[in-house]
Amino acid sequence: MLELLHVTKSFNLTGAAEDERIALDNVSLQIHPGEFVTIIGGNGSGKSTTLNIVSGSLIPDKGKVLLNGFDVSKIPEYKRAAYFGRVFQDPMKGTAAEMSVLENLEIAYVRGRTHSPIKWGFSSSHKKYFSEELKRFGLGLEDRLNQKVGVMSGGQRQALTLLMATMRQRPSEKVIKRDYVRFCEGNKEKAKVEVETAFELAKENRKNALLRVKKLPKEQRKARVEEIKAAYESEISKFDLTKQILLLDEHTAALDPKTARKVLELTNKAVRDNHITTLMVTHNMKDALTYGDRLIMFHLGHIILDVSGEEKDKLSVEDLLKMFEEADKKAEQ
Ligand SMILES: Nc1ncnc2c1ncn2[C@@H]1O[C@H](COP(=O)(O)OP(=O)(O)OP(=O)(O)O)[C@@H](O)[C@H]1O
Ligand SMILES: [Mg+2]
Q1: Which atom of ligand 1 is nearest to 51's Cα?
Q2: pTM (two decimals)
Q3: What three-state secondary structure class fits 217?
Q4: Which of 34, 80, 117, 254 could form a disulfide with 56 if both were Cys (CB 3.0 to 4.6 A apart)?
């Protein structure tokens, strides 16, 4: 669970009282594991500040950020990096232009797992895996692994950044269990039993499903085995804390409509397949309604709307526009 507790952040560039800008005013927010939250709000309403506070690139003036019950407010950004993936509005930001697609992916893949550059090694060991992942994007990037990222289009770079932000090197079973207990909320013993039981159950299910495969006609077996493996991975990934949170700040704003749609679809798929808790800032209200499980609206550093499920499904773009107008009117009074 990701929580903001009474977070306040203000900026003052000159030191004069009249120049004080309150970017976030006593904001509290609880986001559940795997929840996909879309965030809307006018310019300067505090959306990016929220994401920056979550990632650690800004430290709150007051209040706390808790990750699975742990106060991470003062943990510097580079130490939190293993837990977060980020994609910014600017396609130039998330990738290293002078490096090849393969090199960028390799760095992202091991990020947070090892600090030793020697271990990074731009080997071809993961090449096959990266190619397969890129192929799913359907942008032809799998054939350009050795090209420098600097020559790619904005859409291709955003898709690559997205993959870098969401893929992860699966830690060993031991590390997953250890980190899960270490970062759990409340009772450690209970968490230990919970993770052990879940692993056992997932393995048992996999074993039984694989036994049943033998009864299938030969031509169906291979596909079924892949499905079983994917189901197992999906169960296990719920307990893997690396890159468990994805922060997207208008990440499709600089793309043409067709590419934006494609990157959004890829986002949705990556988020759902990997059960990633996601905060997606967008100015596109239709996208904010179409994607995600929950929608939050910011206005002048406050959350003025927080809806999910059916309540969210019932909303229209017109409703949201009306709410914006009303909030502006209220603020003017
Ligand atoms: N580094 C900074 N220095 C000074 N003021 C800042 C800084 N970052 C944000 N602010 C101010 O804080 C307020 C909230 O900014 P924030 O970037 O969070 O808005 P936003 O909702 O992301 O807006 P946009 O839709 O324009 O991206 C604004 O008034 C902004 O000018
Ligand atoms: Mg912003």
Answers
A1: 18
A2: 0.81
A3: coil
A4: 80
Query: Please, how many CA atoms are within 13 Å of residue 223, restricted to the half-sphere of its CB?
Result: 5
> Relative to the alpha carbon of 11, which ligand is closest?
1
C-alpha 220 to ligand 1 mean position (Å): 54
Listed in sequence order, the residues at least 6 apart from 175 whose beta carbon sits closer than 8 Å to its beta carbon are none
Q: For ligand 1, say whether the CB of 164 is within 6 Å of any of its atoms.
A: no
Instruction: For residue 254, give Cα distances in angstroms to 23, 147, 150, 206.
Output: 24, 22, 16, 43
Ligand 2 centroid to Cα of residue 15, in Å, is 23
Contact 49 CB / ligand 1 (< 6 Å) = yes
Please list the pLDDT of the chain residue by residue as tens digits (333 residues): 899 999 999 998 787 878 888 999 999 999 998 899 999 999 999 999 999 999 999 999 999 998 877 788 877 887 777 778 889 888 888 888 999 998 888 888 766 454 443 444 445 567 888 888 888 777 788 899 999 999 998 888 988 998 888 876 667 788 888 877 876 666 889 989 999 999 999 999 999 999 999 999 999 999 999 999 988 987 887 787 776 789 999 999 988 898 889 889 989 988 888 788 999 999 999 999 999 999 999 999 999 999 999 999 999 999 999 999 998 888 888
